[in-house]
Structure formats: C-alpha cells, structure tokens
Write a structure and sequence with these properties.
The radius of gyration is 13 Å and the shape is globular. By secondary structure, it is mainly alpha-helical. The chain has six helices and no strands. Helix 2 (about 15-25) crosses helix 6 (about 70-75) and helix 3 (about 25-30) crosses helix 4.
C-alpha cells in the first residue's frame, strides 16, 4: 500500500509525471533515454524528483525528439528554484 506521501507524488501535481506524459509514458521515456526498463523512470515518479546527474540525458532526449518541457515543470522536477522567483 502506498503512503500518503507516495500518493501525493503520484498525483497530478507531480512535475516528473508531467514530463513522463510529454514523452508518451514510462516505457517511451525510458526508451528515449536509452534505458532497458521503465523502472528507473517509475522510481523518479514515485520520488517526485529526477536526480541532478540525469539532467544531460534528459535534455539530449528532449532535444532529439523535439519535446518542449515548460521551464517551471523542468525545474520543479529537479527541485531547482526558478530564476527570478523569490525564495520561500
């Protein structure tokens, strides 16, 4: 059974889920990034965050496939502040 935190990160306000959606789903995103399985991507969705060191591979796949990810969503998926926004 999923915890409340896991349910929240799997919900509509999860920026990683939004990025996965733009790629066409877990399997398609995994394939675009060169992963043999979707399990890594699923782990990111559950965590609600993409590890910083995956930034390059995501940007490369995004560029290659012509996928536009809004800056706010991209930055939120890496838990980075958006430039010009005030710190909370």
């Amino acid at each position: 059974m999923l915890s409340l935190r896991e349910c929240r990160t799997m919900s509509h306000d999860n920026p990683v889920r939004e990025i996965v959606s733009l790629f066409g789903g877990l399997t398609k995103m995994a394939s675009a990034l060169g992963h043999r399985s979707h399990s890594t991507i699923y782990g990111w969705v559950r965590a609600g965050k993409i590890p910083d060191w995956r930034d390059g591979e995501l940007r490369e796949a995004q560029r290659r496939l012509g996928i536009e990810i809004p800056t706010e969503i991209y930055m939120a998926a890496f838990l980075r502040p958006i430039e010009g926004s005030e710190a909370a």
